[in-house]
Q: What sequence folds into this?
């Protein structure tokens, strides 16, 4: 595996591994309850019948990860990026989808009733889910220019999350992912590409443990909370993927969407070989990712 392929694969598998690790404890906001009930989350767990994902199994993706897999499968089939083409696939997910359907998705589907162009129906959501889905797209465009990667990532995001906050986050993840895949240093890249407001928040709590830090930043879905939390985890545990992903899971809240984003950054920075082999092999989407 050459260096670019190692980092491409790291970005891809990192994103899905961090999401899958958090799935079993997704949207548990009481971190004491999370720790008491589940212990230290270092292996994939099934979410359970009383969760938001009662039909999911250990090694599955969350509902945002499923949308990212939809993007990956589109790129495998078409071998090119097309906003309208992907949107057709994305819309086709929902009639028989057997898991949680988030607010941005419901709003986007509702907007479609009054708009003929399916690329113009995105909700006004300010949640991190939209930009967190882009790992396959960044990998697919690794040999394009950074500007092309940014443009495509924004196009993907605003299909469902049409807000300035979501566009800003997509720009950051696209730039950072692209540069890290091509060998840039993690800390320098974050300082050069992350929104200043989010970096400032992350740096203010970087000396604290993850549960306390993310508790202060906010463990919820909104970019105002989630983006600084992702940056905190990347700065705090940048060269230790295993600890970073576990601490993200243990911090609760929307750890799945944070994981998709965090996994892109740390996977690209450290490469495929840095991801624990058990996490790679136990992904239920492993064959799809290998094909991609």
A:
């Amino acid at each position: 595996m050459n260096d670019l392929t190692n980092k491409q694969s790291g970005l891809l598998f990192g994103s899905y591994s961090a999401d899958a690790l958090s799935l079993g404890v997704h949207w548990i906001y009481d971190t004491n309850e999370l720790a008491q009930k589940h212990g230290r989350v270092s292996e994939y767990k099934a979410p359970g019948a009383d969760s938001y994902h009662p039909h999911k199994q250990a090694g599955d993706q969350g509902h945002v990860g499923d949308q990212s897999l939809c993007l990956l499968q589109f790129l495998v089939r078409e071998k090119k990026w097309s906003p309208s083409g992907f949107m057709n696939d994305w819309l086709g997910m929902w009639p028989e989808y057997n898991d949680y359907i988030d607010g941005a998705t419901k709003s986007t589907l509702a907007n479609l009733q009054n708009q003929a162009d399916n690329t113009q129906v995105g909700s006004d959501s300010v949640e991190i889910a939209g930009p967190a889905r882009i790992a396959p797209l960044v990998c697919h465009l690794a040999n394009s220019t950074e500007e092309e990667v940014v443009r495509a990532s924004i196009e993907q995001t605003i299909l469902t999350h049409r807000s300035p906050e979501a566009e800003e986050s997509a720009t950051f993840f696209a730039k950072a992912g692209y540069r890290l895949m091509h060998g840039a240093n993690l800390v320098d890249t974050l300082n050069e590409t992350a929104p200043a407001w989010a970096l400032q928040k992350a740096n203010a709590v970087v000396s604290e443990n993850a549960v306390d830090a993310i508790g202060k930043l906010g463990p919820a879905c909104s970019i105002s909370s989630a983006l600084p939390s992702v940056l905190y985890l990347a700065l705090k545990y940048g060269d230790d993927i295993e600890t970073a992903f576990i601490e993200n899971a243990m911090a609760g809240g929307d750890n799945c969407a944070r994981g998709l984003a965090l996994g892109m950054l740390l996977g690209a920075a450290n490469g495929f070989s840095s991801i624990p082999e058990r996490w790679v092999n136990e992904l239920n989407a492993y064959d799809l990712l290998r094909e991609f």
